Write a sequence for this structure.
């Protein structure tokens, strides 16, 4: 019976892991494992309070159809107006030159460390000084220096930059601001809440197998 459940869970995890947005350029190596979450925003509608488009996968390997985390959300405060499409064929673009406020809620258990992994697909706003993406306003403060990897050239003036940092211990929630004189086409946020010693060894068995164990961190 357990073998059947494990096999089904692993198949569901693999299927979900294949559902990714088009510019998932630098995914974390731990995506889909125990205590991880992964969500993305495509900005296909002009909604200033933006819910994620979906999980990739949800909650570290829940079955297909599982909802995204409703508390992970964005508030967009741009000076420009939402752009439906551009000449390169990209659909749903937010001109910032303002801010995009990001809130990620966590399970309240004080696990040792939270890894943050954020991918931003962006381009300079024509006519404004070049800034690139600017991350600030971290609450709580990062426990390690912010690391940026990229930019990766995607063509037509679009780039992808990945940002990484750690928070110790895992907080109830974290907040940061994405700003800069940029158009944003896509945002991906992966998190990994490191569980207590011993449980971490189970990650080598794969995210699907761990459905039979109680989660220590849902977000």
């Amino acid at each position: 019976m357990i073998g059947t459940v494990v096999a089904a869970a692993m198949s569901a995890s693999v299927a979900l892991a294949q559902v990714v947005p088009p510019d998932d350029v630098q995914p974390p190596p731990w995506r889909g494992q125990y205590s991880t979450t992964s969500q993305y925003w495509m900005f296909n509608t002009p909604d200033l309070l933006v819910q994620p488009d979906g999980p990739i996968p949800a909650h570290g390997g829940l079955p297909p159809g599982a909802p995204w985390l409703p508390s992970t959300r964005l508030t967009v405060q741009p000076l420009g107006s939402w752009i439906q499409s551009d000449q390169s064929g990209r659909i749903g673009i937010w001109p910032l030159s303002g801010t995009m406020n990001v809130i990620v809620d966590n399970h309240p258990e004080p696990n040792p460390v939270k890894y943050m992994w954020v991918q931003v697909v962006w381009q300079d706003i024509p006519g404004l000084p070049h800034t690139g993406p600017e991350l600030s306003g971290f609450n709580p403060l990062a426990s390690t220096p912010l690391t940026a990897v990229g930019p990766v050239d995607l063509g037509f003036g679009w780039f992808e930059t990945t940002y990484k940092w750690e928070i110790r211990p895992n907080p109830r929630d974290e907040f940061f601001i994405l700003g800069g004189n940029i158009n944003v086409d896509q945002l991906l946020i992966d998190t990994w809440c490191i569980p207590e010693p011993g449980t971490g060894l189970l990650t080598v068995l794969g995210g699907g197998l761990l459905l039979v164990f109680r989660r220590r961190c849902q977000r």
